[in-house]
Specification:
heterodimer; A: 743 residues; alpha/beta; FAD/NAD(P)-binding domain; 6 domains; 5-stranded parallel β-sheet; 42% helix; elongated; B: 64 residues; alpha+beta; Ubiquitin-like (UB roll); two-stranded antiparallel sheet; 27% helix
Chain lengths: 743, 64
């Protein structure tokens, strides 16, 4: 498992709760409380009993060190664990210990001292069916407990816990010299100031003495009552290890915890006081248990949508990824984590919230790359986006410098999606930049994010090379971005290119119409790629405030920003997750959003959220009735943008060949094609292929033709009628990933 | 295909007949009977089949 160990070595998922770390018995309080919260008193009692050995004694005498470390202590009071433990005893159906039907073992253990530590050791060993003999110099068992007022209750508890177990007891038998030839091991628990028999502790193993087979513990070595019981129980484990493998190197019980728990997640709640006496009623016990936070490090699962959706922590994720990359199945192709890997938005929130900075997102990105290289990543998850990227960089790509210049101070890199969303946002931005810096060059291109997300290094490298070549050719200008993802990609893969946001320049030049929207309340939705762009967060808010808006803070903003669902282009790999993300985001509040990522804007708009791009307000382009473009329109908009820019800024005329003019279809079908990510250009390609080769079927009843063609890896089907030359009525279209062989 | 839909291959002018058709996806191959042109082998897959069984099998293979 070398692949993942390094990543999760510091993960705090399995760190003990603060209370458990303080408990002498290491009682799993999260487990105990969970049962109490459900009112399952019997099973809660069993958990308690198995941890503490003598629940009646411990419940009475425990001094509750857990209370001092309970995060609720200043938020209504520390959880009353002792009273909850007592409630589990009061309401358990049966307090009789479980009886284990096991044969007696042939190993014999001597216990010197019938105090509570020796008895605890005897209890654990006899439960495991070892033969135990206790030697007690006085005439009674119980050691220092005998001076206590509740000694009778304690004796009843001891009797109860030994209900099914037997041991040999020699009272009034003082051992003066240890001769362990009749016994396989010995536990010396002779109490405070008791006989050490000249032994010393051997700190290479828990409770180990410096003679083979001799163990020491309890008040003899300074333990208080609770510790003495706990040591007796734990010493039994060290003894058993010795009996089994002959080694006295049982590791010491770990103490402390590295757990970190965010105090902002604590909701104050007053502690429950019993209405009658000093004991909880059943209902009171459940209510008090429900106050418990069950402290655990779950920040990733609490905040990261991916981890909360899959209910998986980094360790589990890395294990599943490991067996997907290096499968142990016989056919070698069990890839259980394929969809999980492909569902990460790479938004960086998991690392942001992790107290030890575990970057599960980066791990999944690397895994994606490996899976692709191994040929295990389904091509279908990213084919559409990679083809779309190719379109942005070729048919719709444009790299130019204003006439009369061969070097520029700035290079406007708006990103491919903003022009796809609304070409005016790019043309107006460029016009604005040229006014300030007339030599500003333009690059209409994709930054390569889809290739990174697809784990496709060769394609990604190609794009980065092209960008770098243009940048050098233009004299290494400062890149001006409109899209936070582009800037993030440049920072990661082209760090030599200095960059800034157009929004900053707009703010500096005071270029936003002021107070046009006075009185309207909106929320700024920060795109996930802006997570660490603190200055940008402020700039956008300043611009919105200048426009007159009142801002309502979103719960997940700035460094806690969540992905709109577009990141990682997960919508093909996991459509339900994409929808989950969208709903989670648009329901953060009911105010309209202002964002500065065109994908956030269009994705939310598709789900009915009122949302604007900040540039809408800068350039007076906002419209209440804006219709979100379909996947085909997004391509058309990019072409329109390219030709508009060529005409407007370089006075170059170009003829647009639009597939839309050759196809007629209903608005319902357009919507369906958009949903299924079928491009009108692909439909036209299928039809042209059918018509050229007569590879089509005729339906005499409907009078329609049907044909299919594989484009890339996807097979597209089109049902159509010929209206006239180069004009087709599209009746239906669908596609599938399976390849039809022999066609 | 429900068996009632009549389709004619435009190239061969033949009505489609049920025939074994091979498929592949992610390195797995399988076959099923589908309406095909008896002469050139041009096949027909309905949207129902694509959205139903084909989509199911695609998902299963992606998760395998």
């Amino acid at each position: 498992m070398a692949y993942n160990n390094e990543l999760v070595k510091d993960c705090l998922q399995f760190e003990r709760a603060f209370c458990t770390a303080e408990c002498p018995f290491n009682l799993d309080i999260r487990d105990f409380i969970g049962k109490m919260q459900q009112g399952r008193f019997n099973i809660a009692y069993k958990t308690y009993q198995q941890s503490v050995g003598f629940p009646g004694i411990v419940a009475a005498l425990c001094h509750e060190p857990c209370k001092a470390v309970c995060p609720m202590k200043n938020s209504g009071g520390a959880i009353s664990l002792k009273m909850l433990e007592k409630a589990s005893m009061d309401y358990a159906r049966s307090k009789v210990p479980d009886q284990y039907n096991m044969p007696q073992k042939d190993k014999r253990i001597a216990i010197i001292g019938a105090g509570i530590s020796g008895l605890a050791c005897a209890l654990r060993l006899t439960t495991k069916k070892y033969q135990v003999t206790i030697f007690e110099k006085s005439s009674r068992i119980g050691g220092h407990l005998n001076g206590h007022n509740s000694i009778n209750i304690f004796m009843d508890d001891i009797k109860l816990q030994f209900s099914h177990e037997t041991f040999t007891l020699h009272l009034d038998t003082e051992i003066k010299v240890l001769k362990n030839r009749d016994f396989d091991a010995t536990y010396v628990a002779t109490g405070k100031n008791g006989n050490m028999f000249g032994l010393e502790r051997n700190y290479e193993g828990a409770f180990a003495g410096n003679k083979a087979g001799i163990f020491l513990g309890g008040s003899l070595l300074g333990a208080d009552t609770m510790q003495a019981i706990a040591e007796g129980l734990n010493a039994a484990n060290a003894i058993e290890r010795y009996l089994k493998i002959g080694a006295m190197n049982q590791p010491e019980e770990q103490s402390g915890t590295k757990l970190i728990y965010e105090s902002i997640r604590i909701i104050p709640k007053e502690k429950i006081n019993p209405a009658k006496g000093n004991s909880f009623s059943k209902e009171e016990a459940v209510d008090e248990a429900k106050r418990c936070l069950k402290c655990a490090c779950d920040a990733c699962n609490y905040y990261s949508p991916l981890m909360s959706y899959f209910k998986k922590f980094p360790k589990k994720i890395t294990e599943e990824v490991e067996i997907s990359i290096n499968p142990s199945s016989l056919d070698g192709c069990a890839t259980v984590a394929t969809r999980l890997i492909s569902t990460c938005n790479h938004c960086g929130l998991c690392k942001e919230v992790c107290p030890v900075n575990i970057d599960t997102g980066e791990f999944l990105l690397k895994s994606h790359r490996t899976m692709r290289e191994l040929g295990k990543m389904p091509w279908a998850f990213h084919e559409f986006f990679l083809r779309d990227m190719e379109f942005s960089n070729n048919e719709a790509g444009l790299t130019k410098i204003p006439a009369g210049y061969n070097k520029s101070k700035y290079l406007f890199f708006p990103g491919c999606q903003i022009g796809a969303s609304d070409e005016r946002l790019v043309s107006e931005s460029y016009k604005f930049l040229l006014k300030q810096f007339p030599d500003t060059a333009l690059m209409l291109s994709c930054c390569g994010a889809p290739a990174e997300w697809a784990g496709n290094d060769p394609i990604h490298k190609d794009i980065l090379d092209k960008i770098k070549t243009a940048w050098i050719e233009f004299g290494k200008p400062v890149a001006v971005f409109a899209c936070p993802t582009c800037k993030q990609m440049f920072r990661k893969y082209l760090p030599e290119i200095e960059g800034e946001f157009i929004y900053k320049i707009i703010e500096e030049k005071n270029n936003i119409p002021e107070n046009k929207f006075t009185g309207e309340t909106v929320s700024v939705f920060d795109p996930c790629a802006s997570r660490h762009e603190n200055e940008l967060h402020d700039t956008i808010r300043n611009l919105a405030i200048k426009a007159g808006f009142k801002l309502e803070v979103l719960p997940m903003e700035r460094n806690m920003a969540q992905c709109c669902s577009y990141g990682g282009q997960v919508s093909v790999a996991h459509p339900p997750y994409a929808e989950f993300m969208i709903q989670k985001n648009i329901n953060q509040n009911n105010f309209p959003y202002i964002t500065y990522c065109s994908n956030c804007r269009d994705i939310f708009a598709k789900s009915g959220k009122k949302v604007f791009h900040i540039l809408d307000f800068v350039f007076n382009l906002e419209s209440e009735n804006r219709i979100r473009p379909t996947v085909s329109e997004r391509q058309n908009n990019r072409l329109k943008l390219k030709y508009k820019m060529l005409k407007e800024f370089w006075n170059e005329d170009t003829i647009i060949e639009s597939s839309a003019k050759k196809l007629k279809m209903s608005s319902e079908l357009k919507e369906k094609l958009d949903k299924n990510m079928i491009l009108e250009t692909d439909i036209l390609t299928v039809i042209e292929n059918c018509e050229q080769n007569s590879r089509k079927l005729f339906d005499p009843d409907k009078k329609t033709f049907t044909g299919y063609m594989q484009i890339g890896n996807t097979t597209y089907w089109v049902e159509y009628r010929i209206l006239q030359e180069n004009l087709f009525e599209i009746v239906n279209s669908y596609c599938h990933r399976m390849k039809i062989e022999g066609n | 295909m429900n068996g009632k839909k009549r389709l004619i291959c435009c190239k061969c002018q033949k009505e489609l007949e049920m025939k074994k058709v091979d498929f592949s996806y992610l390195g797995h191959t399988f076959f099923t009977d589908l309406p095909s042109c008896p002469e050139c082998g041009l096949v027909y897959i309905s949207e129902e089949l694509v959205k139903g069984r084909i989509s199911e099998v695609e998902m299963q293979l992606e998760d395998k």
